[in-house]
């Protein structure tokens, strides 16, 4: 597909505009400190992998949001540390720390500033907890760039569910033919965009090989590349 100009840009948040891995590690460090446990690299990776696997199950409607929040800490601590903890209270504490993780992905603010100055329509579409994602946006001073912010918890469905995008287009002024979604997740952002009939841009800074059957309209490894589509 040749480069096309778009009026509307939908951005994912985690690992597209804000560094989720950094926020996750910071929140885990504080949580483990509360529990008087040592957080080493194997534990970090084990939790991150387990947490991601649960979010993938949620995307596929194999578990509920409530099950995710209960399981991710109860099951992790039971299997990894042989500890019995209250999963929900642990999750609440973790989320309170996660809300302040707002390290910017390289060039994110610069890109948003340029698109905003060019009078493009900017929307945010994220899977996550509403109060956490809104707080992180505010901390990062990104909230003012977006006409609206769409969070799965409020909508009641997760990307890539077509219901998420039906809700988006019925509650925004976006024209699907002039809309591009930008995100780092093939299974969430890109598949969701394809199912919604809009063009998609896979943000792949690690230049990971795509072994899936999901084919984005475009692929970039730097956010600055988005500008040529504006």
Automatic annotation (TrEMBL):
Protein name per the record = HAD superfamily hydrolase
Query: GO: which molecular function terms?
Result: 5'-nucleotidase activity
Write down the SUPFAM superfamilies for this protein, in alphabetical order.
HAD-like
Instruction: Tell me the organism.
Output: Ligilactobacillus acidipiscis
Q: Which PANTHER family match?
A: PTHR47478, PYRIMIDINE 5'-NUCLEOTIDASE YJJG (PTHR47478:SF1)
- Tell me which InterPro entries the record gives: HAD-like_sf, HAD-SF_hydro_IA, HAD-SF_hydro_IA_YjjG/PynA, HAD_2, HAD_sf, PGP-like_dom2, Pyrimidine_5'-ntase_YjjG
Q: Keywords, A to Z?
A: Hydrolase
């Amino acid at each position: 597909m040749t480069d096309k100009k778009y009026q509307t840009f939908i951005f994912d948040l985690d690992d597209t505009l804000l560094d989720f891995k950094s926020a996750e590690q910071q929140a885990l460090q504080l949580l483990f400190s509360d529990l008087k446990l040592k957080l080493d690299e194997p534990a970090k990776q084990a939790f991150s992998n387990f947490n991601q696997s649960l979010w993938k199950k949620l995307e596929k409607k194999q578990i509920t949001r409530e099950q995710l929040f209960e399981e991710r800490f109860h099951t992790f601590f039971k299997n990894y540390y042989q500890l019995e903890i209250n999963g929900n209270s642990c999750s609440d504490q973790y989320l309170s720390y996660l809300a302040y993780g707002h390290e910017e992905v390289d060039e994110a603010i610069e890109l948003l500033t340029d698109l905003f100055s060019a009078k493009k329509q900017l929307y945010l579409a994220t899977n996550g907890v509403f109060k956490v994602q809104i707080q992180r946006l505010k901390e990062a001073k990104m909230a003012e760039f977006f006409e609206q912010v769409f969070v799965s918890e409020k909508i009641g469905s997760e990307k890539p569910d077509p219901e998420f995008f039906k809700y988006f287009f019925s509650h925004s002024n976006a024209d699907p033919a002039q809309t591009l979604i930008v995100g780092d997740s093939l299974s969430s952002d890109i598949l969701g965009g394809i199912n919604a009939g809009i063009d998609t841009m896979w943000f792949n800074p690690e230049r990971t090989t795509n072994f899936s059957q999901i084919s984005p309209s475009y692929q970039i490894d730097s956010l600055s590349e988005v500008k040529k589509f504006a």
